[in-house]
Amino acid sequence: MDTKDIVAILEKFNATGLAEMKFREGSVELHVKRHPDTVYAAAPVVHSAPALVPASAGAQSAPSAPAPAVTSATGEIITSPIVGTVYRTPAPDAPPFVEEGKVVKKGETLCIIEAMKVMNELEAEFDCEIIRVLADNQAFVEYGTPLFEVRRK
Fold first, then answer.
1. Which of 9, 5, 35, 36 is nearest to 22 (CA)?
2. CA–CA dist 118, 126 (Å, integer)
3. pLDDT per residue over 101-121, tens digit each?
4. What span, in angstroms and rounded, lies between the C-alpha atoms of 85 and 150?
5. Spatial distance between the Cα atoms of 13 and 135, rounded to a whole number of angstroms
6. What is the pLDDT of residue 44?
7. What is the C-alpha to C-alpha distance for residues 107 and 120, in angstroms, rounded to an integer?
8. 138 vs 78, 86, 115, 126, 141, CA distance in Å?
């Protein structure tokens, strides 16, 4: 077996959906394994605001459908638009994007939600003040999980 044969085998492996392959011919043994790389990408532009539910609903289980925007005496809840892992900081040793009491402008990043190795930035859909942070860093969230209690500015 020469280099051309090995290259041909690797090209065929790349053309398949296989995750791993072992090949042996005589004294030559080849073991190939795919390792998916982490992909960092900006979140797609969303033209509608994340689902908002009354602040008192935070203790309930996640809704199966987005709740309409409801204001209450304590504020509004920004919920997760996707299933994934919440990252409150841009890097492990960096400060959080937002803290309780911070006033954020429309378009500012509130957190990152990792879904299928893609980093999706959750941006504020309106000017607001963060009343409470409801999700811990690196917590798994589902669609509709409350993330922040906010007050519109």
1. 9
2. 24
3. 999 999 999 999 999 989 999
4. 21
5. 42
6. 53
7. 13
8. 17, 5, 12, 25, 9
Q: What is the pLDDT of residue 6?
A: 75
Secondary-structure percent of the chain, ordered helix, strand, coil, rounded to 5:
10, 35, 55
From the centroid of its chain, how far is CA 30?
36
pTM above 0.90, yes or no: no
State the architecture of 52-152 in CATH terms.
Beta Barrel (2.40)
Q: Pick from 129, 127, 128, 132: which is nearest to 146 by CA?
A: 132
What pLDDT band is residue 29 in, cutting at 50, 70 and 90? confident
pLDDT band, very low/low/confident/very high, at 129 (cuts 50, 70, 90)? very high
Mean pLDDT, residues 37-41: 47
- 147 neighbors 78 (Cβ within 8 angstroms): yes
Domain spans of the chain? 3-33, 52-152
